[in-house]
Specification:
Length: 97
């Protein structure tokens, strides 16, 4: 892999900052007892961290219901902002037993 392309890319510094922010958020969530499922360190701002739904999610103040539409279905999830990251989990009625 040629690392020079990453360094010379105009957005390289911004991408590095987003990745560092996502890593910090994921580590903070793990330290609080959350199970981190996925960390999106791409170019999206703010970074998105997906956690497993559970009782700790109810303690995240300011959580809002959000949705994402695709051609096949509409996916509902909950989201809260923490340390500059979107923390997302499956909405309670969509959790499979």
């Amino acid at each position: 892999m040629n690392h020079w392309n990453l360094i010379e890319h105009p957005d390289a510094q911004r991408r590095l900052e987003i990745a560092a922010q996502a890593d910090f958020c994921a580590q903070w969530l793990k330290a609080q007892g959350f199970e981190v499922i996925y960390v999106d360190k791409g170019t999206r701002t703010p970074p998105r961290i997906t956690v497993r739904p559970g009782p700790l999610c109810a303690k995240l103040e300011g959580a809002v219901r959000a949705y994402q539409r695709t051609l096949r279905r509409e996916r509902h999830y909950m989201m809260a902002l923490r340390h500059g990251c979107e923390v997302c989990w499956t909405a309670p009625e969509e959790v499979e037993a």
